[in-house]
Amino acid sequence: NRRLVLRARRDGLPHVGDFAVEHAPMPEPGPGQFVVRNLYASLDPALRQRLTLTDSYVPRIELGEVLTATTVGVVAASRDPAYPVGSHVVGHHGIADYWLTAAGPVTRTIDPSAASSLSHFLSVLGPTGLTAYFGITRVARPRAGETLLVTGAAGAVGSVAGQIARLSGCRVIGIAGGADKAARLTGEYGFDAGIDYRDKTLAGLTAAIRDAAPEGIDLLFENVGGIQLDAAIDCMNERGRIAVCGLISQYNATEPPPPLTNLFKLVARSIRMEGFIVRNYASEYAAAAATLARWVGEGKIHFRESIHDGLEAGPEAFLSLFTGWNQGKVMLRLEPS
Ligand code: NDP
């Protein structure tokens, strides 16, 4: 039984050598517990916060501890009748071949036939698809005819968020890094416009947003922060709404971010800005995942996955989230012996 542990922590971008694969004994379930044989493990930007921050919404990982994440797996041994051997589960587990656990708020059994690959339970039918779903439907709350801007738009959450808003009748504009990703927004995800933020100043980005949305932005789905958020606020209409999903540009920052020059426009234009965490909606995951599965089946939502093989690939795969090298939901495929 192998597992991925934290060896060192640092400010700034983590190093591959900050993580290690360790061997551990095979766990045995006690009463009410079960052992999951992990098949896929999600690698999320939030894991970066958990390496150093002590005041985030998730507990810090201590040195020597196993990294935890959402995984999909199959129950290998069980003393909980609700999770029988052979059933498929999604939950918050160690990034390990086998993991001893018990039922928790985000644990659920899944029907593997609901998707063409189990990996989809970590991407469009899992935490990232669900984040997009609840962030758009509960926080941004789009109305037909409105214009939505998504930052981090070619990523796992952003690409789905934009497509869900389009299904609500919005005009959707996305910002992503590089010409290829910007082109993918319109070509693959059906957005109305895509903007490449690389090499753009605050003024350049603001001009590009105004160009793509001359009528202004009503809704912002924010994944990035920094000058992307600043430029977007400048382009927002009266009574606009901002759903703050993440601020990835700050996760490895070693200096405080520069102040938002347009912040007062929230006051002047009566703009609502609201953060959210997907697990606030844990009791509704199954119903939302069923809706997402239907949209995927109907060809209304497209998504990409960046799947890496083996625990050893974990550190590089994780770091790809911060270089933009990933092309969709980043995860590990595990094949325990
Ligand atoms: P993505 O698939 O979007 O991958 C991360 C992307 O972020 C990269 O591909 C890169 O895209 C962009 N990026 C990375 N570093 C920077 C930077 N310094 N400046 C600008 N862009 C950067 O990841 P996810 O879809 O998993 O996550 C997207 C966001 O959603 C994150 O902020 C994450 O924290 C948040 N999140 C929030 C949740 C919640 O419950 N609130 C739950 C899950 C995720 P590019 O190449 O375009 O630059």
TrEMBL record:
InterPro entries xref list: ADH-like_C, ADH_N_2, ER, GroES-like_sf, MDR_fam, NAD(P)-bd_dom_sf
Q: Domain named Enoyl reductase (ER): which ranges?
A: 17-332
Entry keyword set: Oxidoreductase
Lineage, top-rank taxon, reads Bacteria
Q: Does the keyword Phosphoprotein apply?
A: no
PANTHER family (alphabetical): PROSTAGLANDIN REDUCTASE (PTHR43205), PROSTAGLANDIN REDUCTASE 1 (PTHR43205:SF7)
This chain belongs to which protein, by name? Answer: NADP-dependent oxidoreductase
Species of the source: Sphingomonas colocasiae
